[in-house]
Specification:
With 102 residues, the chain is an alpha+beta fold. Helices cover 25% and strands 16% of the residues. It has two helices and five strands; from the N terminus they run βαββαββ. A three-stranded antiparallel sheet has the order 1-3-2, with helices on one face.
């Protein structure tokens, strides 16, 4: 197995793991519980990591790149129900939960 992704934010790591799994890439999550060793080890050594089989590397790298860049065609939007401003990543209004334009 090879390490394909690492980040200090466990939520981002889980999101990438879910994206890869949805595309049929088998993943292994490592270091998800080792953050208690932070301070005794270099910071990047305790970040959660995603590991995959080497033959899936090219597909995984393309999916990760797309996920981390986001969709450039999406822009901020205003909720029609409560007129609240929402970032492009939100599919539902953060304030009232109404569906966005995407």
């Amino acid at each position: 197995m090879i390490r394909i992704f690492s980040h200090d934010n466990i939520f981002i790591v889980h999101n990438i793991k879910n994206i890869l799994n949805a595309a049929g890439i088998i993943t292994e999550l490592r270091n998800d519980l080792i953050n208690s060793a932070a301070g005794e080890l270099p910071p990047t050594e305790v970040w959660p990591e995603i590991w995959i089989m080497p033959e899936q590397q090219q597909k995984a790298e393309a999916l990760i790149k797309l996920a981390m860049q986001g969709d450039p065609s999406r822009t901020s939007w205003f909720c029609e129900d409560c007129n609240e401003s929402n970032e492009p990543a939100f599919e539902l209004c953060w304030h009232c939960g109404a569906e966005g334009p995407y």
